[in-house]
Amino acid sequence: MAARLSRRHVAFEGSHPLVPATCLAGTLLVSMFAIQPVLSCVSLVGAISFSLCCLGPRLTAERLRWQLPLLALVCLANPIFVRSGVTTLLVVGPVEVHAESLAYGACMGATLVSTLLWIECASRVLSADRLLGLGGGPLPTVQLILSMAGRLVPQLLARSREVGSTLDACTAGGGPSSGGKAGRVRMTGVLLGWALEDSVERSDSMRARGWGAMGKRTSYQREALRARDALAAACLALLALGSAVLAWKACSEWRFYPSMPTLVPWLGYLPYCVLAAAPTAITLVDRARWARLG
Amino acid sequence: MAGLCNALEVRDLSFAYPGTDGGETDWVLRHVGLAVPEGAFCLLVGPTGCGKTTLLRLAKPELAPVGRREGSISLFGEPLDRIAADPRESARTVGYVFQSPEGQIVCDSVWREMAFGLESLCVPRDTMRRRVAETCDFLGMGPWFRRECSELSGGQRQVLALASVLAMRPRLLLLDEPTSMLDPVAERNFASLLFRVNRELGVTVVVATHDPRPLVDYADMAVSMEGGALREVSPDALRDEPDLAEGPLPAVTLGATQVQASDAWFRYGRDDDWVLRGLDLSVSGGETRAIVGGNGSGKTTLLSLVAGVGRPQRGRVRNWLRGSQVLLPQNPKALLSQQSVLEELMEWSRNVGYGRDEAVDALDKMGMGEELLPRHPYDLSGGQQQLLAYAKLALAHPALMLLDEPTKGLDLAARRSLARALREERGRGTTVLLSTHDLAFVRAVADSVTLLFDGQEACTQATGEYFAQSWL
Description:
heterodimer; A: 294 residues; mainly alpha; 9 helices; 2 strands; 69% helix; 3% strand; B: 472 residues; alpha/beta; Rossmann fold; 2 domains; 6-stranded mixed beta sheet; globular; Energy-coupling factor transporter transmembrane protein EcfT (chain A); transmembrane (chain A); ABC/ECF_trnsptr_transmembrane (chain A)
């Protein structure tokens, strides 16, 4: 899947994984906990625009094709469960639909969709490989375990396909097919035996290369944390912290029920706007620079 | 090239695995003596199960099997026990590459795999970067340094296994059947890399193999192991290609078309490349057809479409024998699931209707004795597993056999047994479709050959005609 994504430049490619981790974790946390119309909108717009950069228009459209109906569903379903609110919009049988509960549903839906998109973009920017590099310094053994899991899981899946198709192909034997219960039990047995057998050779291969000989490990670092990266990460962390404090203030002054106060322009939204727009902005600036060079 | 002392010196070495009563027949190695000078490229040849692996493992302290050992081994003039005491010394002195490209890789990505050994030995970060970089450059791995191991081909994986050992800069390299799971192109590529490691880096190389031909041109010396004893042979004597056939194929009358593909197109995912691009194929009843062609030409895919496991996205694949077919996968482990060889052979006995005697007989035909019946299939060697899997399939009395690389990793004796069994199957009127890189095997068993290239049929000819006109 990852190999099929667009090969175009995306933000943070040249920086230490700490920088995108700070930026995206900050955005994601504020987005998840701040249910407020302005903040939810900012997060949603930021997520969609970065997803356009990161995943490309086609994949983004594919995501939105089911995520926007999800948003609408959450929005419309909320009035059924929540009867609070004072502004009655319409009455459908026993259900009174209030503007407040509709707005709350819309904010929840927007938060949900933007969270999904942010997570997908984050997984694209911070591949498992880079994420592991982040934890490699202090915890080399944990890094190794995760790396081994990253190898074994795809291997297991590929093998289960192979075992299943072999099972289905041997019709002359009259054995079970991979779809039935008996077939699944057999496949599990085959895969388990195969994996155990493999682990013997793998452990030999590890011991032959000095595994466990020294008691501790060093770790190979592909990406170095430079002063520039540390500075960028610190700035983004400050920005995220500021956004979080201001978002908390905005949320504490906001309520959905029984009636919503009027939204007013406020400079306090600005830091979060900057934070949510940063990944897209960096990508676009970089691409523009390349376009001029090209 | 030869240095002052031998890189590997084995003196009067005997070895028996535990659990045996110490009788004369229990010794796997008997009074073995071997001296490999520093900088040499040595071949250790012999059939599967003759004790090559045991000898190699005894020379690598971390892998030495437990058992009764007599005699001595020394590396570069140092007794092995002294080297074994210090893991760093052991890693610096001797590296070991295993047979299976799949099993010996530990990590998910290429660069992490290369660093694995260095990390284990607590090599400082700067040294590590340099070693990884130099090894990568030497082996030309730069273009795929950032790839995931699961995306690599078998040949690339084996080069990676070599690289991750070389990064520790051993002076002696021991390799156990390193090329037997590779296709001919990858095999030759690996052999030439090994030669460069030997000549340019001065690493002493000892390769255990049952098929020395791809390596013979590079070897300085060769020893042959038979019945637990070693005998020095000239590398030139290992050059001949053995004949698998026992006389020409007897004539059979072919029936109507049983398998037919017309304009078949197939790819695994919507965004993937086409694997088959308009393939046409027609196999008659009772025919043994070999599918040959390079890696990625679509041989395995074709077999799975014929088996009905996948469907072509365009065109049509028809198989009139689908109700009575078997498929031998590339890795026999995908087929083996029982607790013992006997249970494995008897798994389909009730459905098909055969008894224990026939099962024992089938095993015997593959050159394996009754003493293996109570053993667990995983206790057999890879070659024996392959033969067991074939015996199990043959017991199902299929009308169509689909065999994917049936001789992969097999030694000469096993290939002969398999060729004999397939000829017998042909005499019985079974239709066989097999994909292979093993041309000697094709010559011995196939009526006709289809060359697959770029997802299409490049040509189909009778076997004799195909080889007469072949350029290769």
